[in-house]
């Protein structure tokens, strides 16, 4: 069975209230992951093991999330840890070690998912509760881990790089992500961000992405956002809220 860290004392926040917010490579994706993890955990807790459709759907979401988390930690290893250690040798060791442990936890949870899916109906409630509890511990570990990344690793990045370099690093990381994975991420990220953060993200995308790709993102987000948030977003982007997103996404 995978091991889980005992609760750790949170690292202090390095956010200052008197200086402008620095480029933050972690904030948006971690909000998306917190939403995806807590939603999936809640669904695992509410799972009806006597309903084959619920079982299929919930386990598929959990499996998909684990794939997303494995991919996410690889992006962090390849781009963010590499950047920290290029200017501060061993500067990312703590969170790199966490990632090794997370890979083991992900594999263990995937094995539990497969066991539950294949189990006799009489065994399912016990296995579902076991999976839910182990998944909760994994989420707890990830919440602690992401806080360390957002405080200690951000402090390192901000000391070692200026914002222009960090934006370029972010763009290289995002460019490495296949379109399908990007859409999956945006599905969680859209409703997880503040309206101002989402508007900034999509303003950047509107300027850089092909119109059809931008329109596809807007179509994806529309049913996921509260109507008020959708109006707020389209207003910020200079689009008309009432139009179909696909038409609204391509500006005259
Ligand atoms: Fe991480």
How is the secondary structure organized here?
Elements: H1 27-46, H2 52-87, H3 93-118, H4 124-160, H5 163-175, H6 179-192, H7 195-208, H8 211-221, H9 227-236, H10 245-249
Helix pairs in contact: 1-2, 1-4, 1-6, 2-3, 2-4, 2-5, 3-4, 7-9
Bound molecules: fe (ii) ion.
Residues 73, 76, 95, 99, 145, 149 line the site of fe (ii) ion.
Region (Disordered): 1-21
Biased composition (Low complexity): 1-20
Protein name: Hemerythrin-like domain-containing protein
Q: Could you please describe the fold and organization of this structure?
A:
- There is one protein chain.
- This protein folds into two domains: 27-177, Four Helix Bundle (Hemerythrin (Met), subunit A), CATH 1.20.120; 194-252, no CATH class.
- The protein has helices at residues 27-46, 52-87, 93-118, 124-160, 163-175, 179-192, 195-208, 211-221, 227-236, 245-249.
- It is globular, with a radius of gyration of 20 Å.
- Helix 1 runs antiparallel to helix 2, helix 1 crosses helix 6 and helix 7 (195-208) crosses helix 9 (227-236).
- The longest helix has 37 residues, at 124-160.
- The chain has ten helices and no strands.
- The chain is mostly helical and 252 residues long.
- 74% of the residues lie in helices and 0% in strands.
- Bound molecules: fe (ii) ion.
- Residues 73, 76, 95, 99, 145, 149 line the site of fe (ii) ion (FE2).
- Residues 1-20 have a biased composition (Low complexity).
- This is Hemerythrin-like domain-containing protein.
- Residues 1-21 are annotated as: Disordered.
């Amino acid at each position: 069975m995978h091991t889980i860290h005992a609760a750790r004392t949170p690292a202090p926040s390095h956010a200052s209230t008197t200086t402008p917010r620095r480029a933050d490579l972690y904030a948006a994706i971690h909000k998306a992951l917190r939403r995806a993890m807590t939603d999936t955990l809640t669904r695992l807790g509410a799972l009806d093991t006597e309903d084959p459709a619920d079982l299929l759907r919930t386990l598929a979401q959990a499996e998909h999330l684990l794939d997303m988390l494995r991919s996410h930690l690889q992006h962090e290893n390849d781009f963010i840890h590499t950047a920290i250690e290029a200017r501060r040798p061993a500067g990312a060791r703590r969170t790199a070690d966490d990632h090794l442990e997370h890979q083991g936890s992900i594999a263990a949870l995937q094995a539990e998912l497969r066991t539950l899916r294949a189990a006799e109906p009489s065994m399912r409630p016990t296995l579902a509760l076991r999976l839910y509890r182990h998944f909760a511990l994994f989420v707890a570990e990830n919440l602690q881990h992401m806080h360390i990344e957002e405080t200690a690793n951000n402090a390192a990045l901000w000391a070692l790089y200026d914002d222009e370099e960090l934006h370029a690093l972010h763009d290289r990381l995002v460019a490495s992500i296949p379109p399908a994975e990007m859409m999956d991420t945006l599905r969680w990220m859209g409703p997880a961000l503040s309206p101002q953060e989402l508007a900034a993200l999509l303003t950047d995308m509107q300027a850089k992405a092909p119109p059809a790709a931008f329109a596809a993102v807007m179509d994806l987000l529309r049913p996921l956002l509260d109507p008020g948030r959708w109006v707020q977003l389209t207003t910020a982007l200079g689009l008309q809220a009432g139009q179909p997103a696909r038409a609204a996404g391509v500006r005259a």
